[in-house]
């Protein structure tokens, strides 16, 4: 919450003469959707709850699947900030349409079926995508993470993957990340990078994950998507 808003709430609570009323006032102010949510949810695959503010907020906290199952939008319950997930179908996955290398499976997300990509076997692993930051909350520090898991048959992950993100101001951030010890059967957030939504970073972010060592065949990675969430 912005300091000015908190100061205003504290002033109102003092006038009421009750700490309990102050708490209720804070909660009432927090349970308000971000100002740009209407434009974001216009292509939701399920109806948006408009009968009451509480029901609307609960739906946004739980998340709304957009663009025919390619993207999810939700509001962080604690920070009241916009969050997004680009599901695997919105990513560019090399050999992703060839069933010899990748298998697509259906899982349920917020009451809607979406697809995840399970790696059968590849030597050249390349996953990339892009995202426009205009829909994120302003003046907020965000984390970009790959949401993935490993199957029991995983192998070939002794070599770390290369990860990079390029911000709208053209600043690139690169690092390597080992996936060798990722837990099996559990979704894990793999941090790809961080940035702040300032005026110079309004535009398109691109990201890339790769590992293309000759004769290093990999299998067992399950990709759900790439998340943009406020840093806590």
Note down, in words, how this protein is organized.
The chain has 232 residues and is α+β, with helices and mostly antiparallel strands. It is built from four helices and 13 strands. The strands form two sheets. Strands 1, 2, 3, 5, 6, 8, 11 and 13 form an eight-stranded antiparallel β-sheet that branches. Strands 4-7-12-9-10 form a five-stranded antiparallel β-sheet, with no helix packed on it. Helix 1 (3-16) packs antiparallel against helix 2 (19-30). It is globular. InterPro entries: PP2-like, PP2-like/Lectin.
Quick structural gist:
The protein contains four helices and 13 strands. The chain is of the alpha+beta class and 232 residues long.
Name some characteristics of this structure.
232 residues, alpha+beta, eight-stranded antiparallel β-sheet, five-stranded antiparallel β-sheet, 4 helices, 13 strands, 17% helix, 41% strand
Order of helices and strands: HHHHEEEEEEEEEEEEE
Helix content: 10-25%
Unreliable runs: 16-28
Radius of gyration: 20 Å
Average pLDDT, all residues: 89
* Count of DSSP-assigned helices: 4
> What sort of overall outline do the alpha carbons produce when their principal axes are compared?
globular
N- to C-terminal distance:
13 Å
Number of extended strands: 13
Helix vs. strand class? alpha+beta
- In terms of DSSP E residues, the strand content is 35-45%
The major β-sheet equals: 8 strands, antiparallel
């Amino acid at each position: 919450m912005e300091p000015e808003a908190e100061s205003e709430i504290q002033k109102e609570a003092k006038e009421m003469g009750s700490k309990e009323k102050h708490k209720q006032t804070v909660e009432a102010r927090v349970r308000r959707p971000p100002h740009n949510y209407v434009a974001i949810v216009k292509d939701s695959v399920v109806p948006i709850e408009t009968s009451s503010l509480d029901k609307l907020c609960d739906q946004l906290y739980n998340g709304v699947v957009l663009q025919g199952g390619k993207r999810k939008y939700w509001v962080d319950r604690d920070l009241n900030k916009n969050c997004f997930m680009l599901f695997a179908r919105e990513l560019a996955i090399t050999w992703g349409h060839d069933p010899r290398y990748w298998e697509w499976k259906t899982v349920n997300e917020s009451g809607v079926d979406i697809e995840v990509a399970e790696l059968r076997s590849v030597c050249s692993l390349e996953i990339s995508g892009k995202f426009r930051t205009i829909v994120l909350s302003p003046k907020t520090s965000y984390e970009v993470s790959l949401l993935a898991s490993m199957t029991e048959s995983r192998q070939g992950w002794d070599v770390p993957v290369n990860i990079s993100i390029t911000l709208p101001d053209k600043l690139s951030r690169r690092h390597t990340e080992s996936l060798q010890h990722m837990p099996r059967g559990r979704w894990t957030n793999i941090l790809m990078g961080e940035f702040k939504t300032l005026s110079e970073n309004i535009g398109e972010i691109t990201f890339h994950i790769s590992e293309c060592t000759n004769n290093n065949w990999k299998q067992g990675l399950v990709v759900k998507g790439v998340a943009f969430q406020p840093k806590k």
